């Protein structure tokens, strides 16, 4: 297993995984991811914030990190945190508990970057996903109605989000 930054060579596969994730969301009757702008993904890659797990020479999972997320986390954004966004798993690798792998990696990433928290959000109250993230070590902090979402992707507009956190100092 390799965990590494995604490269520009991965862009088509990243978009394929996002499309597959959206198709999966559709089957669960939950809020769908919008089609993300190519420039967003290119920027995340250039800033070394787009990540991948490679298994058997295939991208098994992707995600994005940030060190700031004020529109979702509000005043809590002042806390030293790593924020994880848009986890998308290749269907060929589902069931391998890759979120737990990401959590282990994120704990190390947080320590290396002097961050106390690992945080995530998901749009809506998806109880199955909430329970899964709790099993992966996250505390569920509850639902929050977002305010100014103009610069966030479309699925955040007029949405409530479920917030999750791991305190690495505990």
Explain the layout of strands and helices:
Blueprint: E1 2-5, H1 11-27, H2 38-46, E2 50-55, E3 58-66, H3 70-73, E4 81-89, H4 98-112, E5 117-123, H5 127-135, E6 139-145, E7 160-167
Parallel strand pairs: 4-5
Antiparallel strand pairs: 1-2, 2-3, 3-4, 5-7, 6-7
Overview of the molecule:
There is one protein chain. The chain is an alpha+beta fold and 170 residues long. The protein has one domain: Aminopeptidase (3-Layer(aba) Sandwich), CATH 3.40.630. 32% of the residues lie in helices and 29% in strands. The chain has 5 helices and 7 strands. It has a 7-stranded mixed β-sheet with strand order 1-2-3-4-5-7-6. The longest helix has 17 residues. The relative contact order is 0.16. The model has no long low-confidence stretch (mean pLDDT 93).
Task: Offer a few descriptive terms.
alpha+beta; 5 helices; Acyl_CoA_acyltransferase; transferase; GNAT_dom; Aminopeptidase; 170 residues; acyltransferase activity, transferring groups other than amino-acyl groups; seven-stranded mixed beta sheet
A few lines on this structure:
The protein is an alpha+beta fold. The chain has a single domain (2-167), classed as Gcn5-related N-acetyltransferase (GNAT) (Aminopeptidase, 3-Layer(aba) Sandwich), CATH 3.40.630.30.
């Amino acid at each position: 297993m390799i965990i590494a930054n995604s490269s520009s060579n991965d862009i088509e596969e990243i978009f394929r995984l996002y499309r597959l994730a959206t198709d999966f969301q559709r089957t669960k009757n939950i809020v769908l991811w919008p089609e993300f702008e190519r420039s967003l993904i290119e920027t995340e890659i250039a800033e070394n914030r787009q990540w991948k797990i490679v298994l058997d020479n295939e991208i098994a999972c992707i995600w994005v990190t940030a060190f700031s997320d004020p529109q979702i986390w509000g005043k809590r954004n002042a806390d030293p945190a790593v924020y994880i966004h848009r986890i998308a798993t290749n269907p060929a690798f589902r069931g391998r508990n890759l979120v737990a792998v990401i959590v282990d990696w994120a704990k190390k990433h947080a320590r290396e970057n002097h961050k106390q928290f690992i945080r995530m959000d998901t749009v809506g109250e998806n109880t199955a996903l909430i329970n899964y993230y709790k099993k992966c070590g996250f505390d569920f902090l509850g639902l929050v109605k977002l305010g100014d979402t103009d610069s966030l992707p479309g699925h955040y507009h007029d949405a409530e989000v479920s917030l999750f956190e791991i305190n690495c100092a505990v």
